[in-house]
Each structure stands twice: as C-alpha cells, then as structure tokens.
Design a protein that fits this description.
It is built from eleven helices and twelve strands. It has 379 residues and is an alpha+beta fold. The radius of gyration is 19 Å and the shape is globular. Its EC number is 2.3.1.16.
C-alpha cells in the first residue's frame, strides 16, 4: 500500500427519472450540484480541500455546453477556487472521470477530486447532434452506427435470440424491483427536491413486469429485428458522483474508505458492434492485474442492450449470480454521462452489503469502445 493509492470515500447518485418524467423541469446542473453539496456536507470538506471537479456528459450542447462542469462548480459549495473539466467518452464519460482522477492521484499530482457525471435526456435530446464527418461513410454505413442498430448487429452476428434478450430484461426489472423494495439503493441515492416534491426512488423500474408483456413489444430499429423498448436501456435523466482521494488524504481528514481503486482499461472495437466493447476492455484489465473473471465477486456491466450485455457476460465468463445483481440500465435507465459513475456507486455499496472483496465496473461506448475499472474493499 502507498499513501498515493486512490480510494473512494463517497459514492452517491440521484434517483433516475424517465424521459420527460420527474426531472423534466430540473436542469442537469441542479442534479449535479445536489450531489456535490451532499458530498461536501457528509465529509465536512470545502472547496479549499478539493483539487478538481471532473464531470462527464455525452451531449455537450445547450444546457450541457459551456464546460458545464465549471458552471456546476460555481453554483455549488465548491466555489471559485475549484477548477473543473467536462469529459466526454460517451457512455463511459463519468467512468473516464474516475479513471482520470485515480490516475492523477496515483501519480501524486492531485489529492482529492470529485468525479462523476450527469445527463438530462429530457432537456437535451438525443438525435439532434448528428452532424458527423462525411468521410466516415467511406468505411462504415453510418446508419448502422446508431445505438439500436449496433444492438441488432450484436444479436445477429453472435446469435443472441429475442427470447434470451427478453429473459435478460425481465431479470433486470425483477432484480431492480426487489432491490428497491429491500432498500438496497437507499445508501447510494440522494433525494432530489423538485417543484412537484421530493424524488427518492428510480422512476423507470417496471414493478409489474412479465415475460408475456415483454414478448408482445414491437421491435423499433428493424422490422424483423429483436431489439425492443423492453430489452433496451431506458432514456433517462440522472447524475452520479464519487469523491476520489489519496489514501493519505482520507486518513488525514478521517474519512471512511469505501473502496480502493485498482487498475483500469479502455479499448476500441468495430463501431457497428460497439456493444462488445467491455470484452477487450476487461481482457486488458485482467492481463494488467493478473486476474481472471473468477477473481471478481461482483460485476456491474452497463445494460445498454440485453443483446450485448448477455453476449459480453458469456464471453467474459461471469456467472449470472454476481452480474448486475440489482438490475441495471434496462430497469433503472441509462443517462449517458452519468452511467459510468453509477456503476461503481452501486457496485461499491453492494460490495459492502455482501462483503465482496473485489468488483469490476465496465461498459460499452458509442462508436466502438469499452472501459473497465476494478475496485476492492479496503484491507
């Protein structure tokens, strides 16, 4: 162990709201400020002790433009003295903030960084940002790079049936519903005040889900495809945040260490099957750490689509019993810039509940990437 080892001392998120749902009138900056101020309140820290704010966001325009992270810092209790950067690695944007924060701390360049992200998919819609370079058409069918079409490509290329996808989606909702009823998300959720009242639970979980209902849903991306609104992640609003510090900083400020941050990896894949990105990312991580799938007690792999999530699980060799044990983005939702931090937040809290020594959080990334980070309970 080293004084500069990166550790997580806070891990929180907002509830997730459906598109045009409970957070339709809440700006992404306000979702973010609520988490940051909660972290400062819980730790007794202030802006003078935080070195940087690294904040992920995928759709960086309109309300989410203008280096939104700096606006958030100014609106929050962090204040003028804390610099801030907005990071975009699409679905792994906030995962990248944790990667960058932990790498900087491990290198001795920083001591304390708030790392996380946000996406308001109600207020900054997907689909309006489609001005891609025409040269991309020389090598790819750009229409096939849309997220839904890549999920169809994974299903077709790797033989993931509609039934398998619907079974996976059913399990995600059932697990998320049970986790909510049992209070398993309570430690990670910061209630959010809105004009219509306080929101303290995830809005998108279908508590009355059935396999029959899932099987009746139409496909949306291909007329004879297998991907439906039921076995795809939900369009969602939300934010997630961690406080990453050095071990020495945590001990100096008498902060409880929730988890140690291990190695990380990122990888690139064919963008037409972007959903397989976690496979090479995790494989790189295994090689770097000298581990294998059997060495991890819990796994959070972002459920962008059931097709890619199930295929990645099979290829990486993770057991169903340790995989997205409280459901995932199919049930909770996938606010693009927040999901990469939501995975570690949920993972770390569940590791404590199960006394699980090692965990991994990983996700696919639009246009063909993957990211992975490992975490361990403190010794």
């Amino acid at each position: 162990m080293s004084d500069s080892d990166p550790v997580i001392v806070q891990a929180v998120r907002t509830p997730f709201g459906k598109e045009d749902g409970v957070f339709a009138d809440t700006r992404p900056e306000d979702l973010s400020v609520a988490l940051i101020d909660d972290i400062l309140d819980e730790t007794g820290l202030d802006g003078e002790t935080i070195d940087d704010l690294m904040w992920g966001c995928a759709q960086q325009r309109s309300e989410q433009g203008n280096n939104m992270a700096r606006i958030i810092a100014l609106l929050s209790e962090l204040g003028e003295s804390v610099p801030a950067t907005t990071v975009n690695r699409w679905c792994a944007s906030s995962a990248q903030t944790i990667i960058s924060a932990s790498d900087a701390i491990r290198a001795g360049q920083r001591d304390a960084i708030i790392a996380g992200g946000v996406e308001s998919m109600s207020r900054v819609k997907m689909g309006a940002n489609n001005e891609m370079h025409p040269g991309l058409n020389d090598d790819y069918n750009v229409a096939a790079l849309s997220m839904g079409m890549t999920a169809e490509a994974v299903a077709e290329r790797y033989d993931v049936s509609r039934e398998t996808q619907d079974d996976y989606a059913y399990r995600s909702h059932v697990r998320a519903s049970e986790a909510t009823e049992e209070g398993r998300f309570d430690d990670e959720i910061v209630p959010i005040e809105t004009d219509d009242g306080v929101v303290d639970t995830d809005e998108g979980i279908r508590h009355d889900i059935s396999r029959d209902k899932l099987s009746e849903l139409p496909t949306v991306f291909k007329s004879e495809g297998t991907v439906t609104p039921g076995n795809a992640s939900q369009i969602t609003d939300g934010a997630a945040a961690t406080l990453v510090t050095s071990r020495a900083f945590a001990e100096e400020h008498d902060l409880e260490i929730l988890a140690e941050v291990g190695n990380n990896a990122v990888a690139g894949v064919d963008p037409e099957v972007m959903g397989i990105g976690p496979i090479p990312a995790c494989q790189q991580l295994f090689e770097r750490s000298g581990t294998s799938a059997e060495d991890y007690d819990l796994v959070e792999l972002n459920e962008a689509f059931a097709s890619q999530c199930e295929y990645c699980r099979q290829q990486l060799g993770f057991d169903e019993d340790i995989y997205n044990v409280n459901g995932g983005a199919i049930a909770l939702g996938h606010p693009l810039g927040a999901s990469g931090a939501r995975l570690p937040v949920t993972l770390i809290h569940e590791m404590h509940k199960r006394n699980a020594d090692n965990g991994i959080a990983t996700e696919c990334v639009g246009f063909g990437q993957g990211a992975a980070i490992e975490f361990s309970l403190p010794n």
